[in-house]
Amino acid sequence: MTDTLFTNLALLDVDAGVLRSGHQVLVSGKTVKAVRAGRIDAPGARIVDLGGRTLMPGLIDCHVHICADGMTAYPSIFPAMLAAKAAKILRETLMRGFTTIRDAGGADMGYRQAVEAGLFLGPRLFVAGRPISQTGGHVDSRNQADFCVACACAQESTMRTIADGVDAVRRAVREELRRGADQIKIMASGGVSSPADPIDYVQYASEEIAAAVDEARRAHKYVMAHAYTAEAIARAVELGVRTIEHGNFLDEDAARLMALRGAYLVPTLIVYRRILVHGKEVGVSDLHLEKARQVLAVGTRSLEIARRAGVKMAFGTDLFRAPKEYQAEEFLVRAEVLPPAEIIRSATVIGAEVVRMEGRLGRVAEGHFADLLVVDGNPLADLRLLQDQGRHMPLIVKDGVAVKDAAGLLA
């Protein structure tokens, strides 16, 4: 395979949060072979002049649901249609510049294999399999008037597993590990979309969470926890949970604990704004909308608290029941309280740490995978360049292969 030498570019240094001129980047196969100020001697390499455009690493979204298209009532869909819709979501996600995603529940190893085999065009994928919840927890879909016992046919779909007690939790975690999960997802508090649990319901006993963490660690995996309130966050982190999803009601004490333990926060603010706009289109309940208003009211405050405490924040969107096309709007929501360089770091180097690919993803650097975006302009000065379904990205490269070349740069 011929090497590719990118020249005449502005290199986005995500660590320093600056553009660097006068650099060249050499890609060999799937890997960035060299990044250097000045000229790189690469005989036989294909020379690609980027015309002064920005070259930056591919984006990483650490909280997606490819098995929920945002517009379909989940229980009514055939598995074949689910996979077809997921394939479309994967392709569109990649075309927005997200070259790596972490699925937070619903996708199994088969989707990852389909992308790796080239059957689906999509981002590099890390899957959680089925989220694990207690009875009456966040993914228990029965309403309060439902006397039916949670059973396998109703509750152990691809979107949920109900497990109560230490032994049952261990069994559920082991099952997801057997099925190839990259990380384990548990529900540690009430949620917005669930009908029978208030947001401040602190879920799972300490022994149950500890059991999930123990099982994951022994398999060299980790636990991600859905948690909204400061109490739920602190309990989960104390018991060894590695990433906290959402975290809208984070307080200073819980943030300090997260920073001390090295836990990551994955805020997902765009979903609440969009569900309030599109909720009626997708048939969500009035209770769902009211809960969304509650968490939206405190959303950006959690970013400020986490930042002051030194908590590392990854980029997440969680557009479970809202259209996926608004994924990149998360950048604009965070920009209300955070500087652009910091937000871009959350979607690059911090995301790489979350998926345990630091040193391979998240930077344009030697030895890293060649996941690259070419942008018409400076995203540090204008985050709108990351909007519009990738319209401002004429070239998208994943694993050294151009998946989009709208300007014919590689022609």
The biggest beta sheet, please?
8 strands, mixed
- Give the radius of gyration: 21 Å
Q: What is the CATH superfamily classification of the largest domain?
A: Metal-dependent hydrolases
- In terms of structural class, how would the helical and strand content be classed? alpha/beta
**Overall average residue pLDDT:** 92
The proportion of residues in beta strands is 15-25%
Number of helical segments?
A: 13
Q: Please report the total strand number as a whole number.
A: 18
Give the second-level CATH assignment, the architecture of the largest domain: Alpha-Beta Barrel
Termini separation (Å)?
16 Å
Shape category: globular
What is the CATH C level class of the largest domain, in words?
Alpha Beta
Percentage of helical residues? 25-40%
CATH topology of the largest domain: TIM Barrel
Estimate nothing, just give the exact number of structural domains.
Answer: 2
Instruction: Outline the low-pLDDT stretches.
Output: 152-156
Please give a handful of descriptors for the protein shown.
411 residues; alpha/beta; Urease, subunit C, domain 1; TIM Barrel; eight-stranded mixed sheet; globular
Written overview of the protein:
The structure is a single chain. The protein has 411 residues and is of the alpha/beta class. It has two domains: 4-57 and 363-405, Roll (Urease, subunit C, domain 1), CATH 2.30.40; 59-354, Alpha-Beta Barrel (TIM Barrel), CATH 3.20.20.140. It is 30% helix and 22% strand. It is built from 13 helices and 18 strands. It is globular, with a radius of gyration of 21 Å.
